[in-house]
Design goal:
mainly alpha
Length: about 200
């Protein structure tokens, strides 16, 4: 329950980012700087809190299986995204991203309250960027402001849904929790890395 209540902070960041973009669309430099700063904070939170927890549990098999599944799922999602196009594809990709963020946040709170709070701060910055970018993209399709804001709120609500899905993991044996933490860590690092690389590639074009 504590983890779900903390999701209200990044949820508010999604809505705030959407409102800012509706009021005045941010320039590419600001969006890029926000994304890369958020990615750095996410990496720091993962390295300081989640990774040491996985190493402390000392279960190489669970770590390997969970990490491999995390990478595999991310690559499969990426392949599906590349086959789609248009606003629906963009919204689907963003929704999956936010859902996984919520899932990882729930897993972080299982690792410890400190890890959960630190990751909450990191994810707040990340989803703030998502609120900015998604709203800006939807504005290009000439969607109404009210509908754009409702879509942003709907995407943000996937955070507590993902966190809620992670809650039962706390009742599982420690070795399985380690596998889930490894899965979440790989998924989180893939998402922030892939997003940053895509932004760099887009700016070079």
């Amino acid at each position: 329950m504590q983890a779900i209540s903390y999701t209200l902070i990044p949820l508010a960041a999604v809505v705030f980012g959407a409102l800012v973009a509706l009021w005045r669309r941010p320039g590419p430099a600001l969006v890029s700087a926000t994304q890369h700063f958020a990615a750095g904070v996410v990496f720091a939170a993962a390295a300081v809190e989640i990774l040491p927890q996985i190493k402390h549990d000392a279960s190489p098999v669970a770590t390997l299986i969970g990490g491999a599944l995390g990478v595999g799922v991310m690559l499969a999602i990426k392949a599906l995204e590349e086959r789609a196009s248009g606003p629906f594809a963009m919204l689907s990709a963003t929704g999956i991203d936010i859902f996984i963020d919520g899932l990882v946040l729930g897993l972080a709170f299982i690792a410890g309250a400190k890890a959960g709070v630190l990751l909450t701060i990191a994810l707040t910055l990340e989803v703030l960027f998502l609120g900015l970018s998604v709203t800006s993209e939807l504005q290009e399709s000439r969607m109404s402001r009210a509908r754009t804001l409702l879509i942003a709120i709907g995407l943000g609500l996937l955070l507590p849904v993902g966190t809620f899905m992670a809650t039962p993991v706390a009742e599982l044996p420690p070795i399985i929790i380690t596998g889930f933490l490894s899965f979440g860590l790989m998924g989180l690092l893939y998402l922030v890395t892939e997003g940053s690389v895509a932004k760099i590639g887009g700016s070079q074009r």
